[in-house]
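Email to the structure team, subject: Monooxygenase model.

Hi all, the expression group asked for a predicted structure before they design truncation constructs. Nothing fancy, just the tokens so they can compare against earlier work. One-line instruction: predict Monooxygenase, return tokens.
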Amino acid sequence: MIILHANLQVNPARNDDFIREVKALIAASRVEDGNIAYNLYLDIEKECTYTMVEIWENLDAVASHNKTDHLKTFVSRAREFLAAPLIIKSYKGEPLETPTL
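Reply from the structure team: attached below.
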């Protein structure tokens, strides 16, 4: 399992435009083969700061996602919305059994 965290600092004046564009990206990405989760989270302590958390079955699924038109379109337009460079961190993970509470 591959987990990606994309940190996005959005220009407050362009936040509504960003939300509109990112909703299309999320919807298209969620139906891709190999996608387990694709969620955007708002940082409640930093204005217009978001983290996209992506979970993919494997590196092949990530590579396939990186070639999609919807991701390429979003990335090409991201410069219009972002107030700082996009930061992406990737992790290799595996599910853990959690005890029942």
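Strands lie at 2-9, 35-42, 49-56, 87-92. The CA atoms of residues 25 and 74 lie 7 Å apart. Ping us if the truncation boundaries need rechecking.
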